[in-house]
Amino acid sequence: MQVIGIILILISVGTVVGPVAAVAIIYRDDLSQLVITPQIRDIINGNSPIIPVNNNANNGKGGGSSLSGLMSPTLVSAQIDEAAHTFTGIFTITNTLNYDLTLNSFSANVEITQNHIQASSISLSNPVTVTAGETSQLTISSSWTQAAQDYIINNYSSTASVEVFIVGAEVNVNGVVIQSSGTIDAGNIPFNVVG
After folding, report:
1. pLDDT digits over 53-64, tens only?
2. How far apart are CA 146 and CA 34, in angstroms?
Protein backbone atom coordinates (compact mmCIF):
# COMPACT_ATOMS: atom_id res chain seq x y z
CA MET A 1 0.00 0.00 0.00
CA GLN A 2 2.83 2.42 0.82
CA VAL A 3 4.51 1.58 -2.46
CA ILE A 4 1.41 2.69 -4.40
CA GLY A 5 1.28 5.93 -2.35
CA ILE A 6 4.95 6.67 -3.10
CA ILE A 7 4.42 5.94 -6.80
CA LEU A 8 1.41 8.29 -6.91
CA ILE A 9 3.39 11.04 -5.16
CA LEU A 10 6.26 10.63 -7.65
CA ILE A 11 3.81 10.78 -10.55
CA SER A 12 2.21 13.96 -9.10
CA VAL A 13 5.60 15.62 -8.60
CA GLY A 14 6.71 14.52 -12.08
CA THR A 15 3.62 16.01 -13.75
CA VAL A 16 4.37 19.40 -12.17
CA VAL A 17 8.17 19.49 -12.20
CA GLY A 18 8.63 17.81 -15.59
CA PRO A 19 6.93 20.46 -17.77
CA VAL A 20 8.42 23.32 -15.72
CA ALA A 21 11.89 21.84 -16.09
CA ALA A 22 11.35 21.27 -19.83
CA VAL A 23 10.28 24.91 -20.36
CA ALA A 24 13.23 26.15 -18.29
CA ILE A 25 15.60 24.07 -20.43
CA ILE A 26 14.01 25.30 -23.69
CA TYR A 27 14.34 28.99 -22.65
CA ARG A 28 17.60 28.66 -20.68
CA ASP A 29 19.36 31.21 -22.93
CA ASP A 30 16.68 33.89 -22.38
CA LEU A 31 14.42 33.28 -19.39
CA SER A 32 12.60 36.58 -20.02
CA GLN A 33 10.66 34.71 -22.73
CA LEU A 34 8.87 32.86 -19.94
CA VAL A 35 7.25 36.14 -18.85
CA ILE A 36 7.32 38.43 -21.90
CA THR A 37 5.12 37.15 -24.71
CA PRO A 38 6.27 37.46 -28.33
CA GLN A 39 3.57 40.09 -28.94
CA ILE A 40 4.85 42.30 -26.12
CA ARG A 41 8.44 41.76 -27.27
CA ASP A 42 7.40 42.87 -30.78
CA ILE A 43 5.82 46.06 -29.38
CA ILE A 44 8.98 46.81 -27.37
CA ASN A 45 11.20 46.20 -30.41
CA GLY A 46 8.94 48.18 -32.76
CA ASN A 47 7.96 45.19 -34.91
CA SER A 48 4.28 44.98 -33.95
CA PRO A 49 1.37 45.12 -36.38
CA ILE A 50 -0.75 46.15 -33.36
CA ILE A 51 1.24 49.32 -32.63
CA PRO A 52 3.13 50.22 -35.80
CA VAL A 53 6.37 52.08 -35.25
CA ASN A 54 8.22 54.06 -37.88
CA ASN A 55 11.88 53.13 -37.41
CA ASN A 56 12.93 55.42 -40.23
CA ALA A 57 12.08 58.51 -38.18
CA ASN A 58 15.64 58.87 -37.03
CA ASN A 59 16.98 58.84 -40.57
CA GLY A 60 19.69 56.45 -39.54
CA LYS A 61 20.94 58.80 -36.80
CA GLY A 62 20.73 57.17 -33.40
CA GLY A 63 18.85 54.15 -32.16
CA GLY A 64 15.42 55.58 -31.44
CA SER A 65 12.00 55.05 -32.87
CA SER A 66 8.84 57.08 -33.35
CA LEU A 67 5.16 56.43 -32.80
CA SER A 68 4.33 58.25 -36.02
CA GLY A 69 2.85 55.06 -37.47
CA LEU A 70 0.36 55.04 -34.58
CA MET A 71 -0.50 58.75 -34.50
CA SER A 72 0.96 61.13 -37.07
CA PRO A 73 1.35 64.65 -35.58
CA THR A 74 1.27 67.81 -37.70
CA LEU A 75 2.03 71.28 -36.30
CA VAL A 76 -0.94 73.64 -36.73
CA SER A 77 0.17 76.66 -34.74
CA ALA A 78 2.63 77.73 -32.05
CA GLN A 79 2.68 80.40 -29.40
CA ILE A 80 5.97 81.51 -27.89
CA ASP A 81 6.49 83.51 -24.73
CA GLU A 82 10.13 84.54 -24.97
CA ALA A 83 10.18 86.21 -21.56
CA ALA A 84 8.90 83.09 -19.78
CA HIS A 85 10.81 80.71 -22.12
CA THR A 86 7.65 78.73 -22.89
CA PHE A 87 6.24 77.23 -26.06
CA THR A 88 2.72 75.96 -26.69
CA GLY A 89 2.10 74.03 -29.88
CA ILE A 90 -1.20 72.87 -31.30
CA PHE A 91 -0.90 69.71 -33.35
CA THR A 92 -3.33 67.56 -35.28
CA ILE A 93 -2.95 63.81 -34.95
CA THR A 94 -4.49 61.16 -37.14
CA ASN A 95 -5.43 57.76 -35.77
CA THR A 96 -4.50 55.26 -38.49
CA LEU A 97 -5.91 52.27 -36.61
CA ASN A 98 -9.37 50.71 -36.61
CA TYR A 99 -10.10 51.45 -32.94
CA ASP A 100 -10.29 54.55 -30.79
CA LEU A 101 -7.19 55.76 -28.96
CA THR A 102 -6.98 57.97 -25.91
CA LEU A 103 -3.67 59.75 -25.51
CA ASN A 104 -3.65 60.18 -21.72
CA SER A 105 -0.19 61.68 -21.37
CA PHE A 106 3.01 62.40 -23.23
CA SER A 107 6.28 63.72 -21.87
CA ALA A 108 9.85 63.89 -23.13
CA ASN A 109 13.05 65.87 -22.96
CA VAL A 110 14.38 67.77 -25.94
CA GLU A 111 18.08 68.02 -26.72
CA ILE A 112 19.79 70.05 -29.41
CA THR A 113 22.63 68.86 -31.61
CA GLN A 114 24.59 65.65 -31.32
CA ASN A 115 26.23 67.17 -28.21
CA HIS A 116 22.94 66.49 -26.40
CA ILE A 117 22.49 69.94 -24.89
CA GLN A 118 19.36 69.83 -22.71
CA ALA A 119 16.97 72.29 -24.32
CA SER A 120 13.54 71.71 -22.83
CA SER A 121 10.94 69.33 -21.52
CA ILE A 122 7.65 68.83 -23.32
CA SER A 123 4.32 67.43 -22.17
CA LEU A 124 0.73 66.94 -23.26
CA SER A 125 -1.49 69.67 -21.79
CA ASN A 126 -4.70 67.60 -21.66
CA PRO A 127 -5.70 64.03 -22.56
CA VAL A 128 -7.25 63.66 -26.01
CA THR A 129 -9.31 60.88 -27.60
CA VAL A 130 -8.83 60.20 -31.29
CA THR A 131 -11.58 58.19 -32.94
CA ALA A 132 -10.54 55.43 -35.35
CA GLY A 133 -9.55 56.87 -38.72
CA GLU A 134 -10.17 60.45 -37.55
CA THR A 135 -8.02 63.49 -36.81
CA SER A 136 -8.03 65.45 -33.52
CA GLN A 137 -6.10 68.36 -32.04
CA LEU A 138 -3.79 68.25 -29.05
CA THR A 139 -1.73 70.82 -27.22
CA ILE A 140 1.91 70.30 -26.26
CA SER A 141 3.53 72.61 -23.72
CA SER A 142 7.22 73.20 -23.33
CA SER A 143 9.69 75.36 -21.50
CA TRP A 144 13.26 75.79 -22.66
CA THR A 145 16.40 76.47 -20.68
CA GLN A 146 18.46 79.65 -20.76
CA ALA A 147 21.53 77.45 -21.34
CA ALA A 148 19.99 76.09 -24.54
CA GLN A 149 19.11 79.58 -25.75
CA ASP A 150 22.66 80.79 -25.01
CA TYR A 151 24.14 77.74 -26.78
CA ILE A 152 22.06 78.42 -29.89
CA ILE A 153 22.94 82.12 -29.92
CA ASN A 154 26.67 81.40 -29.46
CA ASN A 155 26.94 78.48 -31.91
CA TYR A 156 24.18 78.86 -34.49
CA SER A 157 23.87 82.60 -35.07
CA SER A 158 24.41 82.21 -38.83
CA THR A 159 21.88 79.39 -39.40
CA ALA A 160 18.09 79.36 -39.53
CA SER A 161 17.44 76.08 -37.72
CA VAL A 162 18.89 73.55 -35.29
CA GLU A 163 18.66 69.76 -35.17
CA VAL A 164 16.50 68.51 -32.30
CA PHE A 165 16.46 65.13 -30.56
CA ILE A 166 13.77 63.72 -28.27
CA VAL A 167 14.97 61.57 -25.36
CA GLY A 168 13.20 59.83 -22.50
CA ALA A 169 9.83 59.89 -24.26
CA GLU A 170 6.93 58.38 -22.36
CA VAL A 171 3.45 58.08 -23.82
CA ASN A 172 0.30 56.66 -22.22
CA VAL A 173 -2.19 55.45 -24.83
CA ASN A 174 -5.37 53.73 -23.61
CA GLY A 175 -3.68 53.13 -20.26
CA VAL A 176 -0.65 51.41 -21.82
CA VAL A 177 2.57 53.24 -20.99
CA ILE A 178 5.29 53.10 -23.63
CA GLN A 179 8.75 54.41 -22.74
CA SER A 180 11.51 55.06 -25.23
CA SER A 181 15.03 54.56 -24.00
CA GLY A 182 16.50 55.63 -27.32
CA THR A 183 17.04 58.95 -29.01
CA ILE A 184 14.57 60.13 -31.65
CA ASP A 185 15.81 62.53 -34.29
CA ALA A 186 12.97 65.06 -34.62
CA GLY A 187 14.65 66.87 -37.50
CA ASN A 188 15.47 70.55 -37.78
CA ILE A 189 13.42 73.15 -35.94
CA PRO A 190 13.43 76.71 -37.33
CA PHE A 191 14.62 79.36 -34.88
CA ASN A 192 11.43 81.35 -35.32
CA VAL A 193 9.67 78.44 -33.53
CA VAL A 194 12.36 77.89 -30.85
CA GLY A 195 12.39 81.56 -29.90
Report:
1. 444 444 434 444
2. 48
CA–CA gap between residue 112 and residue 157 (Å, rounded) = 14
Q: What is the mean pLDDT of residues 71-85?
A: 77
CATH class of residue range 52-194: mainly beta
DSSP letter at 83?
T
Cα dist from 55 to 45, 75, 87, 178, whole Å: 10, 21, 27, 15
Cα separation, 189 vs 87, whole angstroms: 13
Domain range summary for the chain, segments of one domain joined by +:
2-32, 52-194
The helix (run of H) or strand (run of E) holding residue 44 is helix 38-45
82 half-sphere exposure, CB direction, 13 A CA radius: 6
Q: Angle at Cα 81 formed by Cα 145 and Cα 188, nearest 5°?
A: 60
0.70 exceeded by pTM: no
Q: Which residues contact 127 (CB under 8 A, 6 or more apart)?
A: 102, 103, 104, 105
